Structure formats: C-alpha cells, structure tokens
C-alpha cells in the first residue's frame, strides 16, 4: 500500500492551514490611521453641521418608499360662522296607553298598547317603546328617555 505520500501531503496541508489561521489579521493602514485620529481628537472640538444641512432628510423621508416630500399643509379654512339651526322640537310623547305594570322577582314588565287596533305588548326596562327607551318602572308610572328628554307614562284607571 502506498500511504506514505498521502500522509505526508495531509500533514503539509494541515501545517499551512494552521499558519494561516493563527496569523493575526492585518488592518489596512487607513483603518489604523482613522482609529488613531479618533482617539487623539478632543470630543469638545467637534461641531455639528448647521440645521439647514439636514433639510434633505425632511424633504425626502428615509423610510418612505416614494421618497417624496410630504404635501404642504392645506391653508386653514376660514372660520365660517356656524349656521344657526333652529332648536329641535321636543320629541312627542308616546301616543299609546299604559295598561299595567308587573313586578316579578325584581324584574319589571310593562303592558303597553301603541294604539286601539294594536295588540298589547310586554316591554322590559332597557327596551324601546315608540323610539323611547324604558329606563325605570314604578308601580304607577314608567320613566322613558329619548335624546336626553325624559317623559313619564302614568298608569290610568280603565274608563
């Protein structure tokens, strides 16, 4: 078997690799000079460029894919006098009739008939009654609310 030359060749390649890997990397001359100058410079002697030198950054934003200056702000609209709107009329109260109030274990239900031809409806607190919201129920009256206006329906005896 001829292992002599192969063994010798492998040993020679390993020695070359070790020499190359163990040698310190040489810095280029310019890099060494820049580092030495930075160490010798007094930080107090450094000055910033004037703010105008940075104008291009504002004109062409770095992270904007289009790299265009933002559109100038539109001129403020002249303050127009607000048009006087007539005050809203108070909402009209429900036209139907409150037939009864039922209290069942803390839950109140009202019996309400919107008009003489309609069936009597059962309505709970929080539900709507002719665009009015039922906010509270008492044994003889129901409190309603619409757009901040309150109205009471009273239980009337049958005629």
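Sequence proposed for the structure above (159 residues):
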């Amino acid at each position: 078997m001829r292992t002599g030359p192969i063994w010798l060749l492998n040993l020679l390649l390993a020695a070359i690799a070790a020499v190359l890997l163990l040698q310190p990397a040489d810095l280029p001359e310019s890099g060494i000079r820049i580092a030495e100058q930075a160490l010798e410079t007094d930080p107090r002697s450094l000055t910033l460029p004037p703010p105008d030198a940075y104008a291009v950054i504002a004109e062409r934003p770095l992270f904007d894919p289009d790299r265009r200056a933002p559109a100038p702000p539109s001129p403020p609209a002249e303050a127009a006098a607000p048009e006087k709107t007539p005050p809203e009329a108070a909402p009209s109260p429900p036209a139907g009739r409150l037939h009864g109030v039922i209290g069942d274990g803390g839950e109140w239900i009202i019996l309400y008939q919107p008009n003489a031809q309609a069936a009597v409806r059962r309505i709970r607190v929080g539900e709507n009654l002719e665009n009015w919201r039922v906010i509270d129920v008492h044994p003889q009256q129901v409190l309603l609310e619409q757009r901040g206006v309150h109205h009471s329906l009273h239980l009337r005896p049958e005629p």
